[in-house]
From TrEMBL:
Species of the source: Ramlibacter alkalitolerans
Sequence segments annotated as region (Disordered): 1-45
Gene3D superfamilies: Hypothetical protein af1432, PAS domain
Ranges for domain HD-GYP: 159-351
Name the record gives this protein: HD domain-containing protein
Taxonomy, superkingdom: Bacteria
Length: 351
């Protein structure tokens, strides 16, 4: 590609482009102002000569186009860019670029955007020069940066998938020990996610809640299996042992670097709004919102399914129970969202 050289300064009208410091400097390079009186001219002219060569040495693309898409100037770095965008032997850019140049000249507005050109990606700025009827194009190749970002995103997603698989394996480990609560954590996760969605939580936060709910009873790994499956009423000491499971669960997961407060969800899922819960007797908003939602889902699933010490109470009774607990033990908004889902919106509890 033969790059056209910029025309001599005498052929252009003195003008100032709108809104671009770089553009101002381009014109200043081509049309140096006389040195102020009393200053030696040698030094500024030397600086100007050095700067005038800047586009020639720049790794970024510098072009000057007329409104028809003819290339009036292209620096050496522009050769590959012009070839990639389909310029006619470097003399004329294709129709879409010519159209952008024409629009920029007509509007007089500087326009910047990210563009895919060939297999590359560029930050492109079109800066019109009012009065002179041409537009400067500055393009920075950001292909490598975008590829690195895509690779980092993919690695992050891969890591998250393996984290989810590990969490699912941990959940299965808990439920293997207690056939009565088999599937409990998965069902609680599904209910909690639905409640959070109804309450309008952000998708990323809901994802964390789903993960936390999936392992909320992981501390039961440390509870003797005979206590988990014991029919009838539990003795005070047995109850105290079972009530250790939020603390034990927190101990198990607290060092895993989740991007959500999963360990706190596990720790707080038996806290109650009036401070009567365990292990720390937290109240109201001291309890993480995710844990408050989790508590509602946990109670609904616990009451509506069969347990070792009692048969299933059914969905209607479970809903009556959370209504009774609303505000005092369970978060009022989470209860309301759950009731709306099940009574008005046809949400069906997972089997
Ligand atoms: Fe629990
Ligand atoms: Fe539970």
């Amino acid at each position: 590609m033969q790059a056209a050289a910029p025309g001599p300064a005498s052929e252009r009208q003195p003008s100032r482009p709108a809104g671009s410091a770089l553009l101002v400097s381009m014109d200043d390079l081509c049309e140096p102002n006389p040195a102020p009186q009393g200053r030696p001219q040698e030094a500024p002219q030397q600086e100007i000569r050095m700067l005038a060569g800047a586009p020639e040495r720049s790794p970024n693309i510098v072009l000057r186009l007329d409104p028809c898409g003819s290339v009036l100037y292209a620096n050496p770095a522009a050769a590959a860019f012009l070839a990639a965008c389909g310029a006619d032997e470097g003399r004329r850019v294709p129709a879409p670029w010519a159209e952008m140049a024409r629009e920029a000249c007509e509007s007089g507005m500087v326009r910047s955007e990210e563009m895919a050109v060939g297999s590359g990606c560029y930050d492109v700025t079109l800066a019109p020069v009012p009065g002179d009827g041409y537009v400067h194009v500055y393009a920075v190749d950001i292909t490598r940066r975008r590829r690195a970002e895509a690779a980092a995103r993919e690695a992050g997603q891969k890591l998250l998938r393996s984290l989810e698989q590990t969490v699912a394996a941990l959940a299965r480990a808990v439920e293997k020990r207690d056939p009565y609560t088999s599937g409990h954590q998965q069902r609680v996760a599904a209910i909690a996610v639905a409640i959070a969605g109804e309450m309008g939580l952000a998708p990323h936060r809901i994802e964390g809640l789903r993960l936390g709910a999936t392992i909320h009873d992981i501390g039961k790994l440390h509870t003797p299996a005979e206590l988990l499956t014991k029919p009838g009423k539990l003795m005070a000491l047995e109850l105290a042992w079972i009530r250790q499971h939020p603390l034990t669960g927190h101990e198990i997961v607290k060092d895993i670097d989740f991007p959500w407060p999963v360990a706190q969800m596990v720790l707080q899922h038996h806290e109650r709004m009036d401070g009567s819960g365990y292990p720390h007797g937290l109240q109201g908003e001291e309890i993480l919102l995710e844990a408050r939602i989790l508590a509602v889902a946990d109670v609904v699933d616990g009451l509506s399914t069969h347990r070792a010490h009692r048969p299933a109470l059914g969905v209607a009774a479970a809903l009556q129970e959370i209504e009774r607990m609303r505000g005092r033990w369970l978060d009022a908004q989470a209860v309301d969202a759950c009731l709306r889902l099940l009574r008005e919106q046809g949400f069906v509890l997972p089997a």
